[in-house]
Prior knowledge:
The chain is of the alpha/beta class. It folds into three domains: 2-155, no CATH class; 174-382, UDP-N-acetylmuramoyl-L-alanine:D-glutamate ligase (3-Layer(aba) Sandwich), CATH 3.40.1190; 392-515, Alpha-Beta Complex (Protein-Tyrosine Phosphatase, Chain A), CATH 3.90.190.20. It is 52% helix and 16% strand. The chain has helices at residues 2-33, 40-51, 59-66, 70-89, 100-123, 129-173, 186-197, 213-223, 242-250, 265-268, 271-278, 280-283, 298-301, 355-369, 374-382, 410-421, 441-455, 465-476, 488-498, and strands at 176-181, 203-205, 230-234, 254-257, 290-294, 310-315, 322-330, 333-340, 343-349, 392-396, 399-404, 427-431, 458-462, 482-485, 502-507. A nine-stranded mixed β-sheet has the order 2-3-1-4-5-6-7-8-9, with helices on both faces. It starts with a helix and ends in a 9-residue tail after the last strand.
Amino acid sequence: MEKFLFAIEYFALFMGALMLIAITYKVLQIFQQSHYQLRSFKKIIKYYYLKDRTNIWPPFVFFIFYLHLWYIQLIFGIYLGVLIFFKIKKKNIQNLKFTFRIRRLCTVIIIFKTLLVSILSWKLPLPHISSALAIVFLVSPFDILLAALFIQPLESLISGIYIRKAKRKLKAYKTTVIGITGSYGKTGTKNILFSFLQDKYMVLPTEGSYNTMNGVALSINRNLKSHCQIFIAEMGATGKRDIEKLVKFTAPKYGIITTIGPQHLETFKSMNNIISEKMKLVEGLPEDGIAVLNFDNEYIKNYPYKSKCRKISFGLCNEADYQAFDLKADLNGLNFKIRYKKKEVSLRTALLGTHNLYNILAAFALANELGVPLKELVYQTSVLEPVPNRLSLRTEANLIILDDGFNSNPEGFRNALDVLGYYSKRRILITPGIVEAGKNEEEINYSLARKISEICDLVILVETAASLAISRGLEELRFKNVKIVEDFREAMKYVRSKEKEAVVLIENDITDIYKL
């Protein structure tokens, strides 16, 4: 009998340890996907106590007081096993990446949780050590938050070391820096500009979509060589002073602002904050520098510039220094002309979507100012290839996939729908909507419903607050062919099994944090 009781006790403790691992994994996964921003814990706490269906925590209060009884221990272990089963069964959109930062944080979390269980068992008259575990389950997000706060000074120190190293490297190599920022179009413009400059200069762009301080520093430390003449730095911002810090860090001579819109409005709080932050790039350029500005964007065109650097505009409007006109867009790409400095040139590209016109225009303008021959610009435009997941085209059995899954914005969403509309086959949209639009998120997504209803035959919405706003708009328009799914995998599984021949637009993909 004694061995049986020991077995039950250890079973309860083992299941408790597994539950702690499962809870910690989920919290760290969301923390990582929110770029380690401590403010994300507000959302984590709300999710943990109110929304997580695989974490039914109120019974833990009962277990605290009765875990000295063997049969309650058995029920406790089985209950935890059921919760863990459903946690494992619920697949993540993006798994936790065990970076050095996560490993350091895990070490601190293990120490904190061990101390917490020990102190609770020692100081409180608890009936069993498993009771201390039950209490830890109740407060788990808070001890992980405490661990993150505790380790933050160390992370700032490590980050500072890498940034200072990258700054010294840039200065020592005397590399000219081009900064590119904007609410969207940064990566596309960066890649096109790299293509335009690479034959005339030794050029290094930031890796992938790295656009934070740490990401830019990583690109410099890892890849910048003494022979590099130009470094193209993509500059992203999710809050105030992000661009300002990047400008002080890299000291760009040239800058491009692609466009300004309600991206990351949730963290910026207002359009004025977004505009002010993006313009820090122009204000930080030297007098002999050049700012390349999208004059089709009213926020950029009407901004009261203080910088004395030279300003060059691009767009479709007549005021633009580099004006695109005679645009023709179809399934083969874009054909258009550019008028500049009393010259005209005809260009064609296989890139889809009119948003790519602006990316090409911006890169063309700066490359021309930097002395790249016109013949080279025309050729490079003709051989441009789409970046994966940014309105790139692929086939899958009987399906044509238009993959625009990297991220989304109102302008890009509508452009992608236009491309979908070129096809005469059955047209399907898969989207979670546009996220991170703050207080305007519902309005922005709701407004997309009309165009979606005009173009699409079937709409599959990945369930988020943003996509439900699209659903309401479609319902009011009496568009009935709508399916709501849990995640992207379910959407593609449905399409593959039900659709014999179709064109599928994947517009935006999301990480788990947007499902909270």
